[in-house]
Amino acid sequence: MQRRTFLAASGALAAASTLPVTSFAQAAGNAITAPWTGPYGGVPAFDKVKVADFPAAFDLAMKTERAEIDTIADARTAPTFDNTIAALERSGSLMDRVSTFGGVWSSTLSTPELREQEKVLNPKLAAHGDATLQNEKLFKRIEAVYNDRAKLTPEQQRLTWVYWNQFVRAGAKLSPDAKKRVAAINQELAGLFTSFSQNLLADETDYVLYLRSESELAGLPDDVRAAAAAAADERGKKGEWAILNTRSSMDPFLTYSSRRDLREKVWRTYYSRGDNGDAKDNNANIKKILKLRYERAQLLGFKTHAHWRLENAMAKTPEAAMELMTRVWPSAIARVKEEVAEMQAVADKERANLKIEPWDYRYYAEKVRAARYDLDMNQIKPYMQLEKLREGMFWAAGQVYGFEFAQISGVPVAHPDIRVWEVKKAGKHIGLWYFDPYARTGKRSGAWMNAYRRQEKFDKPITTIVSNNSNFVKGAPGDPVLISWDDAETMFHEFGHAIHGLNSDVNYPSLSGTAVPRDYVEFPSQINEHWLPTKQVLSKYALHHKTGEPIPQALVDKLEKAKTFRQGFDVTEYLSSALIDMKLHLAGGADIDPDAFERDELAKLGMPSELVMRHRTPQFGHVFASDGYSAGYYSYLWSETLALDVVDAFKASPGGMYDKAMAKKLHDNVMAVGNSIDPAVGYRTLMGRDVDVKAYLRDKGFPTA
Fold first, then answer.
1. pLDDT (tens digit per residue) in 467-517
2. Burial class (CB within 10 angstroms; exposed 0-12, middle 13-18, buried 19+) of 246
3. How far apart are CA 247 and CA 249, in angstroms?
4. 563 Cβ partners below 8 Å, 6+ apart?
5. What is the bridge-based pairing of β-strands 464-472 and 428-438?
6. Which residues contact 349 (CB under 8 A, 6 or more apart)?
7. Which of 104, 306, 401, 686 would be 631's cystine partner, CB 3.0–4.6 Å?
8. pLDDT band at 27 (very low <50, low <70, confident <90, very high)
9. Cα separation of 542 and 536, whole Å?
10. 3-class state of residue 526 by DSSP
């Protein structure tokens, strides 16, 4: 029962809307509101969705859910687990289906018409969620069950606590005036989140660098050129090359282009998203969001938004999160200084007559890598075929969790690029996996996992439907898509979220799969990255796109030796973002100029001038497109300390990364249980102790003392 928005395919509850677009009778007849039919317990009718139907569909979903909630709250019978908590789990099925469609279209098929709908609908969805979470009669019933929970099963006790805690944290115990103000804040935030997201998408879509001559392509490998040509062709610029304003297009250009002037242009365009002083500038949105979050936290009884957000996380307090980040930070920036010195030496030797700047870092880092390790990442890329690596992900998931994947046809999809696989285990249907790999206009940047339907079994078994979404640049027809090693790691990472959802084996959907604290949810996916570099995967699936030969062991050995290379850059660009996120939300009600705050706080931290935050504040969608990762971007570091500790345990086991006993412990204590147990308890049961952060430090090549 989280707060839903049009932007999320999974998420919350939400208040009858008054959009006059169509009638409820019409809404009942559109594909978005229809029950899912067909095989596999029913599948979404993506092929029948019409954008014009969304307003009426959400109207009907909110009206239906409100009636379901009122029935539970107004019941005259004494509150029990079944007539209150389980009844809430049964409610909202129409809203779940409509939100799935809304989330898919908003994140992957956005149009001007849809964006106008979002501006109207998201505040109304926020109001609808608050109407539920602040329903006094409903909360009294929940609290009655919570106070008498000792007789329930452990999973029922956990679910009851989840509901009770969610309502309390949303303001269920506040005065009527305070509740009203919290609801107003949430509605205003929903509008600001929508504005932030749409501004960012506009800057990613509208700013494209077109290259028109061979000289402008200097240094670019053939696959990068081909992808740029395909992107230009798609935009009606046949015969030119397009460098898009997305990470998947920017990163390889900055890595390989020998045209320093163009590197700077691409770098400035990318890192200025949302910060151009125009109608799409996000700084004003950020100021308002920070003020509103602080006011809401104060109303709810918390010192800051960060304290409110972390109360429910594994870290528990912002201070604990800051302690971990500040332990790692000095080692990260010290490594950056070493890396910059090496790069500067290369530039000086070439008589380049330059000082290393942020648009030079990736380019000269590759030169250092080649000199120190005799490793050019372009030597790796011919073996990194997208489809072969997908097969490798399937194979590893089969070895570790027993899954079998079979591509299926005849299932509706939202776009022709999307394909679907049935997932089985020991011959039994487990769920469906949708794969949407390619960038396109209207699709937000990055990579992510969605759950279209969560696993449950308390009334009857319902299997999950999950998806992975990426932004790989589609090559020429018939040519294999080659991806970087970093992109391969990201693909395995996001697949780890999908595997988490597919492994779920709980009774109640609110406890299912990835419905765990934010600083724990990345833990299973970060473990999954570590099956990519195993010999078994590389020898079978890292095959040269022309010869079919497996990647040579000598090249794999070089990769292993270079494992800690450029960790200064990687950790610092991430950690600077996490630290600024936390500092912004610990600043209380201060008047903040986002650009100045970012600049001043990074200076205090000793941020090296040769790189910037991975996500500069005006483009920090994790933090300002929703409450999702707000005061929570540290979660990737927190989770990675857990993951690397477990990876060390796998490697120390007789079967290494494929050890059956260790895999079963991981499945039973983490992957299958969702949020049905306290994650800290699950981790201690898995490892027999609390986390040891030294595994993380060793992995990065940082001092462990």
1. 999 999 887 788 899 999 999 999 999 999 999 999 999 999 999 999 889
2. buried
3. 5
4. 699, 701
5. parallel
6. none
7. 306
8. low
9. 10
10. helix
Q: Which two tokens mark 594? A: 């986002």
Rounded mean pLDDT, 511-538? 95
Task: Extract the tokens encoding 244.
Answer: 């898009």
**φ, ψ dihedrals at 482, nearest 5°:** -100, 135
Tokens of 4: 């839903």
In three-state secondary structure terms, 516 is coil
Give the residue among 134, 137, 123, 145 at the shortest CA–CA distance from 171. Answer: 134
- Cα end-to-end distance, the chain, whole Å: 43
SS3 content of the chain, % helix, strand, coil (to 5): 60, 10, 35
pLDDT in tens, 228-277: 999 999 999 999 999 999 998 999 999 999 999 999 999 999 999 999 99
Judge whether residue 367 has pLDDT over 80.
yes
Taking alpha carbons only, the member of 229, 232, 306 closest to residue 581 is 306
Q: Which residues pair with 242 in a beta bridge?
A: 210
Of the candidates 362, 417, 384, 325, the residue with the CA atom closest to the CA atom of residue 247 = 362
Please enumerate in sequence order all residues whose Cβ is within 8 A of that of 30, keeping only pairs 6 or more positions apart, or say none.
50, 53, 56, 57
> From CA 639, how far away is CA 693, in angstroms rounded?
11
Amino acid in the structure at residue 128? H
Question: What is the helix (H) or strand (E) element at residue 697, kind and residue range?
Answer: helix 694-700
155, 494, 610, 640: the catalytic one is 494
β-strands 428-438, 419-425 pairing: antiparallel
pLDDT digits (tens, 9 = 90+) for 38-58: 999 999 999 999 999 999 999
Does residue 645 carry a pLDDT above 90?
Answer: yes
Residue 114: CB partners within 8 Å, gap ≥ 6?
A: 51, 54, 105, 106
Torsion over CA of 350, 353, 358 and 360, rounded to 10 degrees?
A: -30
Considering Cα of 399, then 402, then 406, then 410, what sign does the dihedral take?
negative
Confidence (pLDDT) at 28: 54
Q: What is the pLDDT of residues 535-556, one digit of tens each?
A: 999 999 999 999 999 999 999 9
- The DSSP letter of residue 429 is E
160-192 pLDDT tens trace: 999 999 999 999 999 999 999 999 999 999 999
Alpha carbon distances (Å) from 645 to 17, 39, 103, 320, 699: 48, 41, 34, 19, 10
Q: In the prediction, which pLDDT does 7 show?
A: 44
Checking if the pLDDT of 29 tops 80, the result is no
CA-nearest of 477, 428, 431, 436 to 453 is 431
d(CA 297, CA 139): 20
Rg over CA atoms, the chain: 25
Does the active-site annotation cover 494? yes
Contact predicate 4/99, CB 8 Å: yes
Cβ 200 vs Cβ 619: under 8 Å: yes
Question: What residue has token string 């289906």?
Answer: 97
User: What token pair was written down for 330?
Assistant: 């000095």
The answer to whether the CB of 580 falls within 8 A of the CB of 617 is yes
Local structure of residue 606 (DSSP, 8 states): T
Is residue 222's pLDDT more than 70? yes
Asked if residue 265 lies in contact with residue 172, where contact means CB atoms within 8 angstroms, the answer is no
Whole-number Cα distances in Å, 690 to 324, 518, 642, 668? 14, 18, 9, 18
The pLDDT of residue 25 is 45
Who's near 622: CB < 8 A, 6+ residues apart? Answer: 581, 615, 628, 629, 633
